Structure formats: structure tokens, C-alpha cells
Amino acid sequence: MAQTIAVLDFGSQLTQVIARRIRESQVYSKIYHFGTPAAKLREDGVVGVILSGGPQSVYSKSAPHPDAEIFQLGVPVLGICYGVQLMGHFLGGRVEHSKAREYGHGHLTIKKPGKLFQGLPKKLRIWNSHGDKLAKLPPGFVAVGTSENSPYSAIEDAKRGFYGIQFHPEVFHTERGVDIIRNFLVGVCRAKQDWTTKDFIAHSVADIRAKVGKGRVLLGLSGGVDSSVAAALLHKAIGSQLTCVFVDNGLLRKGERDYVRELYGKHFNIDLRVVDASALFLKRLKGVSDPETKRKIIGRTFVEVFERTLKKIGRTAEFLGQGTLYPDVIESVSIQGNPASLIKTHHNVGGLPERMKLKLVEPLRELFKDEVRRVGEALGLPREVVWRQPFPGPGLGVRVMGDITKDKLEILRNADAVLQEEMMKSGLYWKVWQSFAVFLPVKTVGVFGDERTYDYVIALRIVESTDAMTADWAKIPHDLLQKISSRITNEVRGVSRVVLDISSKPPATIEWE
Ligand SMILES: Nc1ncnc2c1ncn2[C@@H]1O[C@H](COP(=O)(O)OP(=O)(O)OP(=O)(O)O)[C@@H](O)[C@H]1O
Ligand SMILES: O=c1[nH]c(=O)c2[nH+]cn([C@@H]3O[C@H](COP(=O)(O)O)[C@@H](O)[C@H]3O)c2[nH]1
Ligand SMILES: NC(=O)CC[C@H](N)C(=O)O
Ligand SMILES: [Mg+2]
């Protein structure tokens, strides 16, 4: 059995980021429900426990609490934020609400490095996000690090292997955070660093086989990175029990349907069905302009088309495969007690209707994009597939602002094709996270060959990002922008103005709807 680090999830948006940092240290980790019995963790061969952050207050009635026995397991425990507060609450200290809320950047001064801060500078920039604080240390603990507002920013009981930190080592903004986590894993828990992408593949292949048995999986294959990697993984696990369906929803980019048919139908030996449902999608979307309503309609229609396709092929499938990634999950579901977390309904997660009869198989559900790409490369997928820019499931449906018509789609498709072509030519396509065009239903005045025009606007959205959780607009050379702009206004009928989106995420999201 693999040595496992258990991450108990108390509802933080950052729990998966903790898991990801652990994987970065080549250690195997598993996320558990906060209330998992200690006996189960022992059974799973857990060599260390991390308590995540969380939105609640440990002393409140509805607060999620762990099984108190986890502190008797005899394995090290690291509490992060809410986690250190839990340690205070359970081990005889005291937590209270603090007037001096700490949010954002702060500084940690390390008094005593111990094992957790081994090899790190005495002062570190850290990132905080808490309103409660430890007011009294539990017996056996000493303070080893302080911040502006917390005398107990880092605490330890080295004898029992208990460590607590009030800040978030898992976020990018905490200096040397990865090293702090690695120190816990390797220095304290003595975990072996032997967990690789290959192990992930072997593990998910076994999981898929166990779940699916002799059943059939119907996978929505979009030609994007996520579903391509999911297809390759499923194909490896269950071979001919996999049927892929590519839906032309009328909201695709120029040439996409042929690209997918060519690549997967011909080059890969995958059972691929191409379904043209564009008329149905466009009919349902007619006159609808609210973004969330559009997303829901698209999601519902997708599933309906899958079900209908099944009947038509005359095969029974019990499973629906999807290339859902962690960022899709976090932005689509509202996590217990965290009202802020629903941002958009990504059609593949929140948009699924309840009546859906198929069970979900989502082998990439816990990964981030760059990890998925590594899995894709290890599975031998071509570079052009693995490094394609992401394209959202609702497609051009959320890139035509407001209500959707064939004409608007056609204009957007042509403008977008120009942008992609120029990005490819310059090589920048592979360097940015996404580059795409957005159709604005705003008419502005122009002049073409001395004649007045009154036409639509195209916005260019080009962003840099590492995981789509945050993004910044890309600083594209002016001469390239000029070329793209003049080609669009010259070649695309119906457009007389091109604008550049210079918003970062947050506050703006990457897609406009
Ligand atoms: N046109 C489509 N036909 C069939 N399935 C689709 C289609 N579009 C999206 N899906 C399904 O919805 C899932 C989510 O779409 P999403 O865009 O996040 O992933 P992707 O297209 O596989 O990868 P990428 O993020 O690189 O575009 C896909 O993994 C796929 O299962
Ligand atoms: O599969 C998807 N279904 C969706 O409904 C969806 N909406 C946005 N995206 C993509 O997710 C990333 C973050 O996008 P936002 O900043 O717009 O939320 C960006 O990469 C977006 O392109 C989607 N992907
Ligand atoms: N990020 C956290 O874990 C916060 C913990 C707790 N809810 C607080 O506000 O202090
Ligand atoms: Mg896609």
C-alpha cells in the first residue's frame, strides 16, 4: 500500500491546492471528509495528517470537527489556519474571535526553526486569511513563529509531532510555502518521495476498472485537452468498452468538427460518433440572453443528446465519462457554508440535470490543468493536443454576448479564426493561456471606402495564467495586435471595430459570460 498523507477537508477552497502541493513533492495524498474515523485512516496506512483551512469558527455550533482520536493515531499532524485552530480547540488551548483580522500579505518571523522551517530564512512573506485566533496555547506546544497580529502564527509540539500554522503555506503568495509543506512530509512524517505521474496513471486505471467493471462508458469528447486525456486514460483502462461522442452544438470554432473527426476517428483507434445537434441547440437558445440560463440550457441539451445518441447506437452505457478538472469543480459547486463559491455554472458539473440516469466517471476531477497535461504527455498524446488552449464546453455560446444568432456566430467564428492564425504564426499561441475573440452586440459607426458603416465590435481576450484561477491580460506586441485588428476589420464582414480586453482575473473572469 502507498504511504498516504491524509488531508482532512474542512471546506476550504484551498484543500485541493494543499493536495497538489503534496503531489509536487512526489508524495501520495488523499482528501478525506473531515469526520473520517481515525480507524479508517489507520487502515489506509496514513503516515501523516493535514487539517485544512475552513470558513467556519471552531467554537460555533455547526463547525465541522474531526474525530478526536486522530490525535491518538501516533502520526504527525499539521494544522493549517482553521486546522491550527482545531488543534487549539481539541488539545486544551483556546480560540477566539479577533478584532485584528489578518487578510492578505504578512510577515512571519521564525523564532525556532525546528523541523518545519528547517533550511528556511528567518523572515518569510506569508499569506493570511483568518478572523479567529489562538488565544491560549494548548499544553505541550510552544510558539515558534510570529506575525504582525499573531504571536502564535506557527506553533509546535515536536514531541508528539504536532505542528500548526495560522497562515497558508499552500498558496503561491507564501514565500517558500512548498518547502514548509515538504519539510512536514519528508522531515516530520518521513514520507517516501516516490509518487509520480506514472503512479497516478496506474492508480486511476485500477480505479476506473473497479468502478466500471464490464460496463460501458460514454465519453463526451470535445477535442480539448481534458477530454482527450480522459479518453486516453479510459481507453487504457477499459479499451473497447469506451465509446466517444463528439457533439456539434453549433457553438464550435471554425473547422473544429473536421479537426476532431480527423484526429480521433482516423489517427487514434477510438470508437468516435459525431453527432450534429446544432439545430436543436440553436433553437433552444433562441432569444435567451441571460448567461446562466444559456449555460444551463446548453448543459441540459448536451446530456439529452448523449442519452439520445445512446439509444440510437443501441448500446447500454451506465457511465458518462467527462474530463472535469478541479477548477471546474471549485467554481461550480457551493461548498458547505461557503456562499461565495458559486461563480459560474460550468456546464459539465453544475449544469447536469438531476434526472440524468448515467453515473459519472471523472478520472481527472482532482487535478489541475498542468498536471493533466503531464498525464497526457505520459500517455503519449501528441504535443498539439496536450498543449491546446482550453475551450469552454458552452463554447461560442458564452462568447456571443446576449442572445445568439447564426449570423453573430458566423462573425465571431471568422474573427476568432484570424486571431488564432496570427497567434499560431507568431508562436505566441503556445505561450499564453488562452487567446480568443468575443462578439459584442454593440453597433458603432465606421468608415469604409468613404462610406459610413454601422457594425459590430469584436473584443480580443488574451490572457496568461497557470491554472485559470487567476489570470492577467497578456502583453502582446503592438505590431501583432495591429495586424490582427486590421485583418479582422478587412476580412470579417459586419465588424468595424476591434477592442482589447485589459482586465485581470479577479475581478473579471476569463470568459465574458
Ligand atoms: N462538443 C462536445 N462534445 C462532447 N463533449 C463535450 C463537448 N464539449 C465539452 N464536452 C465535455 O465537457 C467536458 C468539459 O469541457 P472542457 O472544455 O472543460 O474540457 P475539454 O474540452 O476536454 O478540455 P479543454 O479545457 O482543454 O477545452 C469535456 O471534458 C467533455 O467531456
Ligand atoms: O469546461 C468549461 N465549461 C464552462 O462552462 C466554462 N466556463 C469557463 N471555462 C474555462 O474555465 C477557465 C476559467 O474561466 P472563467 O475565468 O471565465 O471562469 C477558462 O479557461 C475558461 O475558458 C469553462 N470550461
Ligand atoms: N482560512 C481559514 O481557515 C479561516 C479559519 C477561520 N474561519 C477564521 O476565520 O479564522
Ligand atoms: Mg473544451
TrEMBL record:
Q: Tell me which UniProt keywords the record has, alphabetically.
A: ATP-binding, Glutamine amidotransferase, GMP biosynthesis, Ligase, Nucleotide-binding, Purine biosynthesis
Q: Which reaction(s) are listed as its catalytic activity? A: XMP + L-glutamine + ATP + H2O = GMP + L-glutamate + AMP + diphosphate + 2 H(+)
SUPFAM superfamilies reported for this sequence: Adenine nucleotide alpha hydrolases-like (SSF52402), Class I glutamine amidotransferase-like (SSF52317), GMP synthetase C-terminal dimerisation domain (SSF54810)
**Which is one GO molecular function term here?**
ATP binding
Q: What is its EC number?
A: 6.3.5.2
All copies of domain GMPS ATP-PPase, residue ranges: 195-388
Q: Which residues form the active site?
A: 81, 168, 170
GO cellular component annotations of the record: cytosol
Record pathway: Purine metabolism; GMP biosynthesis; GMP from XMP (L-Gln route): step 1/1
Q: Which residues bind ATP?
A: 222-228
Ribosomal protein keyword on record = no
- Enzyme class, top EC level, equals ligase
Report the InterPro entries cross-referenced here. Answer: Class_I_gatase-like, GATASE, GMP_synth_C, GMP_synth_GATase, GMP_synthase, GMPS_ATP_PPase_dom, NAD/GMP_synthase, Rossmann-like_a/b/a_fold
Provide the function of this protein: Catalyzes the synthesis of GMP from XMP.
Self-association state and partner proteins as the record states: Homodimer.
PANTHER family recorded = GMP SYNTHASE [GLUTAMINE-HYDROLYZING] (PTHR11922:SF2), GMP SYNTHASE-RELATED (PTHR11922)
- Protein name per the record: GMP synthase [glutamine-hydrolyzing]
Specify the species.
Oleiharenicola lentus
